[in-house]
Design goal:
single chain; transmembrane; cell membrane; LysE family transporter; LeuE-type
Length: 210
């Protein structure tokens, strides 16, 4: 299979895995509404980078890394669940600004990127999705490093394309969102994020009982 075919398949995989709206999507939407499209896109790029890491593990067939990460699954789920609870509570208590926030500086964008990168990596089950998809397409663990690199690049580009479209689209609606509406968005988003955190922690119960 040529490099362009690997790249195209990576684009499709990255876009499709990023598209379902979960806690990261919710964070991206909320940050776009609160701080602008740049903050939302930076958050999405963090998730896209984490997707590329997991795509690399699956694409290059790094079984040892996969086994190590799955061995730490409980600890990573605990950390991710606690972070989601904290983010949910902070969002729930956040007060919308009286006027639109200025574009965040480099430090703010870096923080938005780093937080979603770490949060996405804290869900090692994501690698199972990549292994399943890559395995179904006959792409997992291939020996062609050039093809695997093109595949991972495609995963990142496809995921980033989704986040760019989402943050741009939500950013266009930002000016129409009133302060009262933003207050309710914060409340609902906070409760949903906390719900994701509770679900993540609940998945640890079978592990603790065993």
């Amino acid at each position: 299979m040529d490099v362009l075919a690997f790249l195209a398949k990576g684009l499709l995989v990255g876009f499709s895995i990023a598209a379902p709206v979960g806690p990261i999507g919710l964070l991206c939407i909320r940050r776009t509404l609160a701080d602008g499209a740049a903050a939302g896109f930076a958050s999405g790029l963090g998730a896209a980078s984490a997707d590329a890491v997991y795509g690399a593990i699956a694409g290059f067939g790094l079984a040892a890394v996969t086994d190590w990460m799955m061995g730490w699954e409980a600890a990573l789920r605990l950390a991710g669940g606690l972070v989601l609870l904290w983010l949910g509570l902070a969002t729930l208590r956040a007060r919308p600004a009286e006027r639109a926030a200025e574009a965040p500086g480099a430090a703010g964008l870096a923080g938005a990127y780093a937080s979603t990168f770490a949060l996405t990596l804290a869900n090692p089950a994501t690698i199972v999705s990549f292994l399943a998809v890559f395995g179904g397409l006959g792409l997992a663990g291939g020996s062609d490093w050039t093809g695997a690199a093109a595949l991972v690049s495609g995963v990142f580009a496809g995921s980033a394309l989704w986040w760019l479209g989402l943050s741009t689209g939500i950013g266009l609606l930002r000016a129409k969102v009133t302060i009262r509406a933003m207050l309710w968005i914060n409340r609902v988003s906070g409760m949903i994020l906390m719900g994701f955190g509770v679900v993540a922690l609940a998945t640890l119960l079978p592990v603790l009982r065993s």
